[in-house]
Specification:
259 residues; globular; 11 helices; Uridine Diphospho-n-acetylenolpyruvylglucosamine Reductase, domain 3; 4-stranded antiparallel beta sheet; 5-stranded antiparallel beta sheet; Enolase-like, domain 1; alpha+beta
């Protein structure tokens, strides 16, 4: 039997999380696991006043963890994330799915988490502790506490590129996603579904560090799968993902991807 515990604030709920408990925000992940008979947890924790909303200041853009994909799509300062949010489910899912919940989505989901890794977002916990999203994702299976918000740096126009490769258009689950941040001395290339969590393709990043030109693109594509561990599932084999990753990265860097 699964019980539901509801608390007033996130800080109160964070103190009540224990072994066998799972936090529910929009419910698109938790309720699926309940419906499929997942017995790894027996208590669902909810919050009446989750942190949500979007604020913009000189430090960047703060997004409450309870902010939905639909709310992201409605905010003009997050237009660079619109191509990501737009391809997550249909309208009903986007009205429920939250940006905080997406950090915990398992393959082949978690499209937004991969994009946030490319953007070098910061994850802020309910206790105020902040960490780079790369650190958070690597340790998310052992994470304690609740995610309260994310802080995303401002992005210049055209610096962020994203593509989702799926067999069902336009919003099927992803064979892989590729997120790229360019325009500075520290380019970032991130693949989704090419490892247990979204992963940076650091050899490709080094190839692009001197600027994006045809030779740099070819060099990046030649090494983009080094250090990755592609998923093997019903959507595609690890071999297939490895073979097509350079093709899609080349298209993204050359043509800007599909929106």
């Amino acid at each position: 039997m699964v019980t539901v515990s509801t608390y007033q604030t996130m800080s109160e709920a964070a103190g009540k999380l224990a072994e066998g408990s799972m936090y529910m925000a929009g419910g698109t992940i938790v309720m699926r696991r309940v419906n499929f008979g997942d017995q790894s947890f027996h208590n669902i924790v909810r919050v009446q006043q989750p942190e949500r909303g979007i604020t913009v200041d000189a430090q960047g853009i703060k997004i409450g963890a309870g902010t939905t994909m639909a709310e992201i799509l409605a905010h003009r300062d997050l237009d660079f994330l619109h191509p990501v949010a737009r391809q997550i489910g249909g309208p009903a899912i986007r009205n429920m799915a939250t940006i905080g919940g997406n950090l915990f989505a398992r393959n082949p989901n978690g499209d937004m988490a991969a994009a946030l890794l490319a953007l070098n977002a910061q994850v802020v916990m309910a206790d105020g502790h902040a960490s780079p999203i790369e650190t958070f994702l690597l340790d998310r299976g052992h994470a304690r506490g609740l995610v309260a918000s994310l802080i995303v740096p401002r992005v210049s126009h055209g610096a962020f590129k994203y593509v989702k490769i799926s067999r069902v258009k336009p919003r099927g689950v992803a064979i892989m996603t590729i997120s790229v941040l360019l325009g500075g001395s520290d380019p970032r290339v991130v693949f989704g579904n090419m490892g247990p969590t979204p992963l940076r393709a650091k050899p490709a990043e080094r190839a692009l560090a001197g600027g994006v030109n045809p030779s740099a693109i070819e060099a990046a594509c030649a090494v983009c799968t080094q250090g990755l561990s592609p998923a093997e599932d019903a959507l595609a084999s690890a071999w297939y993902r490895t073979e097509v990753a350079p093709v899609h990265l080349r298209r993204l860097l050359t043509n800007g991807g599909l929106r």
